Amino acid sequence: MFSKDEAAQLRKDFWTSFGKSFPRKWLLYNTKVKGFSFKFVADRKKAMVCLDLENPDELVNMLYYDQLLSLKTLMETDIPEVIFDNEYELESGKLIHRIYVPFEGKFSVYNKNTWRDCYEFYVETMPKFELFYYEYEDVIKNI
User: Fold this and answer.
1) CB atoms < 10 A from the CB of 29, how many?
2) What is the span of the domain harbouring residue 27?
């Protein structure tokens, strides 16, 4: 086990190393849609690339989620492993709408031997999400 400070340093090192190894400007929060963001997730047991819907107005979240569901077949063509979760529970207990692709390999943010494969997964998967967003941005925003 790691101390709290060691664990925090490993998490910081993970993200710093990713940024240095794969320098690129990602879309992430720059969608210009409130509560509509792309994320890289890494914790002690899993990694994933996500599209999270977290607008403070739940009705708006549902409208965006429904809009994305209408595009599900198209998204699955580009990202066949994508998972749509209407009620994804965050560690905090908060429920959000999440569309994501999990990293299927062994991974822990605390095991440096697993980092490289995760980075490659991120670099392969996030551009698919971004491309999909750019291609269907007008449809997605039309709620």
Assistant:
1) 12
2) 4-141
